Amino acid sequence: HAHYKGETPYCLFNCCVQLFGCSAAAQVKTSRETKGQFLSVNMAFSVGVMSAMYLTKGITGAHLNPAVSLSFCVLGQVQWGRLVPYCLSQLLGAYVASALVYLVYYDAIMDFSGGDLTVYGPNETASIFATYPSEYMTLGRSFLDQVVGTGMLMLCILCLGEKRNTPAPAELIPPIVAVIVLGISMSMSGNCGAAINPARDLGPRLFTLTAGWGTEVFTCYDYWFWVPLVAPPIGGVMGTFMYLIFIEWHLPDPDQPDNDSALSISETIKQSTL
């Protein structure tokens, strides 16, 4: 029990985020935008992030993104041995959430698609679950898109717990992170859907593979699936080093902490990281 209690909440954590976001995507897609629009999906994912952070922050650090977990391993704030269990829990949560969304919206999906589950075309439904690039995007540009988005996410997260640089109160970190996610998804979704999270993309993609969409979910767009799997971790680490080089190393030496001091980065991890 002691070994798994740090990892198992991440399954529910990521399930919560995906359930909010993918349900909104299903509602918008199958209603042909008569019951929501682009903003609806972005806001739903952000509310999911905030809800999940409040849900589990008293149990363990709220790592729902392998890219962020990897970055904190690089910082030495998370043990490397926990990275794989964290990632597997995050992946499982995303898969389970996708299955729940499929069950809830099964009739709507079948009515919209005519029973033909496809990745391409005006009646495609695969994008309800995983992310796919726009027709004009190349693999290289898509990779850059994901690196930049995840780098921004990590850069902003690290600022929240730095007591030498206007830190955020612990109880406000979940809504602040949600707003950060909302900003990134609203400004960087046009090209590739702003996955910025390998588990958020791979879990639903694996579900669609097993639920009837077939291998096309992996082979489409020149095997694009590896981009949201590889680029976000690289972007997260790059954002981490940008923070260290351009911000943290220029801050004054920390004063002796007192009881009223704000959270340090390591304390932030334990309570409320994305």
TrEMBL record:
Localization of this protein: Membrane
PROSITE patterns: MIP
Family matches, as SUPFAM superfamilies: Aquaporin-like (SSF81338)
GO cellular component, one term: basolateral plasma membrane
Family annotation (Pfam families): MIP
Predominant location category: membrane
UniProt keyword annotation of Kinase present: no
Keyword annotations from UniProtKB, A to Z: Membrane, Transmembrane, Transmembrane helix, Transport
GO MF assignments: glycerol channel activity; urea transmembrane transporter activity; water channel activity
Membrane association type: Multi-pass membrane protein
TM regions (residue ranges): 38-56, 62-80, 87-105, 143-160, 172-196, 223-246
Keyword flag Cell division: no
Family according to the record: Belongs to the MIP/aquaporin (TC 1.A.8) family.
The protein, known as: Aquaporin 10a
Gene: aqp10a
